Structures are given as C-alpha cells and as structure tokens.
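Following up on my earlier message about iron/sulfur cluster. Here are the inputs again, as you asked, copied directly from the submission form:
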Amino acid sequence: MTPIRAADGCPPGRSITWSPSITLVPTRFCFNACGYCSFRRPPDPAGPFADPLSDAAAQALLEARPEAAEVLLLSGEVAPQSPQRRAWFQRLLALCRLAWAQGRLPHTNAGPLSLAEMAALGRLNASMGLMLEGLGPAYDTLHRHAPSKRLAVRLGQLEQAGRLGIPFTTGLLLGVGESHADRRAALELLAELQRRWGHLQEVILQPFRPDGAAAVLLTGAEQADLLVTIAQARAILPPEVHLQLPPNLWPLQALPDALAAGIDDLGGIDSSDVINRAYPQPTPACLTATLERAGFSLVPRLCVHPAWLPWLPAALQRQAHCAEARLLASRSSGSRSPWP
Ligand code: SF4
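Thanks, got it. Here's what our run produced:
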C-alpha cells in the first residue's frame, strides 16, 4: 500500500481528546514474563482459555457500557509456534466480531502478529497497538524472559503495520532506568517510521508505576523529568502524531503541565479499569473541570483519529460511522454519558 500522509496535522492545542472505551481480556496467560508485569498468568497446560471470557460474558460486559465506542482487546500472548496459537487467534477474531455486532470499533493490542494475522485483524480493527516500550540496557534486563519484546521484533511489527496501512498506536514505557539518550533514540526511531509510513496516529508516553495494593504517585522530580521528555517527543515526532498520556498515571492537578508540554490526548479510558486497579481513572467530569480551569477542553473521539479514517476499508468506515452515532447517542441521552 502506498503510504498516505495524515491530512490534518495536530500540534498541541486547546482541545484534548479521549476515547470512551471498554477493555476485554481474552486471556491473561502469556508466554512472555516481563519483569514488571502483574497482569500475566503463566501458560496453562489446558490452553490459553482454561478460564475463558465467553461470548455471553463479553456480551454482558459490552451491554453494561453502552457509551464505549471503542472495544480494547488486551491479551496475554501465545507463542507463535504453539499449537494453541490458532485457537487464541480465532478467539480474538470472534471478540472483534462481537464488538462489530454491537456497532463498536475494536482496537486490538495482543503482541506481535504474523503478516496474515495482522492483515485479518486489520480488516476488523479501526486501529491497533503495540508499545515499542524503549531501547537500551534497562529494557533488555526487564525483557530477558520476554522473546516478543525484543527490539527487532517490535520494530518489525511497526514496519509491518505501516506496510498494511493500519492506523497504529505505539509508545514508550518511561522511568525503568533508561537514560535520556535511550529515550531520544527511541523517539527518533518512531519519527523515522512515521516519515516512512505515516501510520502512527498516537504515541503513548507512559510513566512506569509499580503495581500493588496502593498507588505510588509520581514525585515532583519525576514529573519534571518526564515533562522534559514530553517536550522532546513533541519536537522530534512529526506534528500529526498525537502524544498520549494515561491520566490515571499522572497527578490530576498537575495534568495541565503535561498538556502544556505537548500532550494532546488521554487515550482510551475505561471507567472500570481491569488492568491497574491501584490507579483508577479520573472521571470525565473530573478531567473536564481540571482541564477547563487551565484553558483546555476535553473532546471525545473514536479509537481511530479523524485524519486516519480515510485509510480504513469501506466496511470499517461504515462501522466507524455507527460507532460515532453511539457516541452522539450517549451524549444526548445523558445516561452513563462519557461527556461531562
Ligand atoms: S507481554 Fe504483556 S502480558 Fe505478557 S508478560 Fe509482558 S507485559 Fe505481561
């Protein structure tokens, strides 16, 4: 596919976007063992679906969250050569179809995929994601038992998504012991990929926070350090790439500082976050009030940003219009509204 440039460059501005989202977890079983992960369960001999998310359970979760136009499929990984890989992949497709049947847009983040797997998911997903995480010795240590986190594998996946023309989310995990030079090198790799393919619609700058029973908030010094990186990312990445910060991992009252430094997107927000229970998401009303006091406005969006909508196949564009109608309906109904 010929790379297409995003049309509406989006430098940091006064509108900050977010996507009302619900997370479905097909399985937590994962053949990787990243040094920081509390999401993972070790692979079960009975297969990745020893404790399955059934269609009925997924349906019930979706119906309880009518405002969520985005369905984030976040899955533990099955090794490429595993005999269980096919069943795992078919389950991902089935959950995407379930999201479609309800007029929603899937966004899958399930680790590295073969070309055929990514192409098949790309026909059902308005956007997909895979964190680069970073490069350098700190990441090598964290990922020594995670074969799919090797830098070459991650870069190959980002390149493959570009070739397939899939609007894509990637990002960096920050604060694991990496240097500023490591961060700069990672951002320059992403900028180069974007100049080649134009498919990186957003880059997440995710502060690493330890899991546990209680949140460990970023210190003032850690915030100051990350603000430097946010500004550096804005300077290095092409202007159409949105910079995303998970708002549950940053002190709410200091959020305007991150926005002033270059963040313009708060990502998919699931009001009942199943991943980071110690770090609950702020409510849209809370975010709106904080942002308005600082001169910003909070604007809902689909998982695919508007500039990349024309990239999608016709059927996915029609699905995006259905999902948009869901956003508008929940805004006007007022019930469980994602809008303030
Ligand atoms: S790949 Fe993801 S789920 Fe698997 S161990 Fe690493 S962080 Fe956890």
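One observation from looking it over: Residues 15-333 form a domain with the TIM Barrel fold (CATH 3.20.20.70). Hope that helps, and feel free to reply on this thread.
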